[in-house]
Amino acid sequence: MIDRKGTGQADPGILFGILGVLLLGVFPLSVHDYSSITRFKYLQMLLLTGVSGFAALAFLPAWRRAFRWNNVSRILCLAYAAWVVLSAFFGSYAAKTDADGVRIVLNGAVRYEGLITQVCYVLLFLIFSLHTPRRSIVLAACAAGITVYTAIVLGQYAGLNVLDLFPRGRSTLTNYEFQGTIGNIDMVSGYLILQIPLLMIPYVLGHGGALLLTGALAGVFLESLMEVQSGLLSVGLLAVLILSLALVRERVRRRAGIALAGICLCFALRRMFALPWLDGTDSILLILRRKSLAWALMAAAFLAAGWFFSKRKTGTLSLRTVVLLWAGVSAAALALVCFVPLGNSGMLFEIHEIFHGRPDDSFGSWRWGVWRHTLDVSRHSLLFGTGPDMFYYAMRDYLQATGNVLGENFDNPHNLYLAVLAGSGLPALVLYLALVISLAVHSLRKPDAFSRAVGVSVLLYSVQGFFSFSICLVSPMAWAVFGMACADGEGSPGGFDS
After folding, report:
1. Which of 71, 118, 130, 259 has the smallest number of Cβ neighbours within 10 A?
2. Higher pLDDT, 408 or 77
3. Which has the closest alpha carbon to 430: 181, 105, 172, 80?
4. Are 419 and 391 in contact (CB under 8 A)?
5. Cα separation of 140 and 209, whole Å?
6. Do residues 496 and 63 make contact, with C-beta atoms less than 8 angstroms apart?
7. Over the Cα atoms of the chain, what is R_g?
8. pLDDT band at 4 (very low <50, low <70, confident <90, very high)
9. CA distances (Å), origin 334, targets 57, 246, 330, 340, 351
10. Residue pLDDT, tens place only, 170-228
11. What is the dihedral of CA 347, 350, 351, 354, to 10 degrees?
């Protein structure tokens, strides 16, 4: 291992940087066809967890001398893990076995999210919490990975069966919800939202160049093409955060303007193309539309504003003022959605109906219905839940017993937090929420750009988690990032000696 500053001591930052490359750069691009991609990623997760564990043991002497457990996030993670283990033994469906007599809770009912996978997630967290990785290595891998991923998807859009991912006779035209080497676009969106902030925030703060910006914008462009609503919401929140940084810090305004202009150009470019699977055309068409022009004008405005205000001392706003400003904007937007009917369908219409007490189970692709039924199911096993990844059986039995019907077949509640509640009980949910909050606060309070980017990544991933779910296609990356958010870095009481 490379010496640290010529001292003769191995630098753990290099090792953890390489592990970061494996989890955040190599893992999402690992190739298999869509017919068995989940099992392939599951097996790869097991391998990478083992490799990471053995690699971390290389620094066991330093670990034993310097490591401290007095880290709130680690304690919360271990408490959460302990409760998940208890739920795997005492959950209402934990004793259910398969045809071979093996307890299903070990591997899970459908998506390999059983106890074994949950243990791997916690191990990845603990391993990556040991030391901050070499930032340049991880960020370069993330930027290159997202760029390559976007190129693969664009090849699929062009009609190519890139890497033979689609079975014979299938393509993006027939199954647009599968894209790239992760597959389902909801999962792809989770991957992008996890990594876009890791690249964009350091760039805006002046600690990265064109490579980071290119990777981040490639991810934003792919989000605009897929049109996953939770991903678009998270991109919007990232834009708000970047604009807020420009309001409170003069020195970031030029780069913030460039980043915001790049985001707008991504959406302008999306509006220039009509996609058959989203826009109802027979083929991909180049169309000049007013929305494209509007996005392009916004890009020009942000670019000009970033340049103009970076050249002049115009003062800054306090953080409190910015928070109050966005709170006012949010309140006005909610009031508008609440009191003004906006169309007869779509997300805004559905929110309007919910505000007025007229919800329908079909709202949000039946998410509202499965959320409502999940809460009902969870009331009967509030302490330990059903057991990890046993939701499929619990919901099936509940629907049969009550006579309720959902328009789609759900093997999870399509909400990360309700999934924790249903699978492992209310104590597990409380511990998980406390863990996420502690990680975000811990990272955002640090002075370096990478740590703050990790904190934003944790926050945005958690936001999109309200509409998505945990699965081994993406969650190993998330738990690795969670661990990075927990790491205290070089020479601090929670890490290795410097």
Report:
1. 71
2. 77
3. 80
4. yes
5. 10
6. yes
7. 23
8. low
9. 51, 25, 6, 10, 9
10. 999 999 999 999 999 999 999 999 999 999 999 999 988 999 999 999 999 999 999 99
11. -160
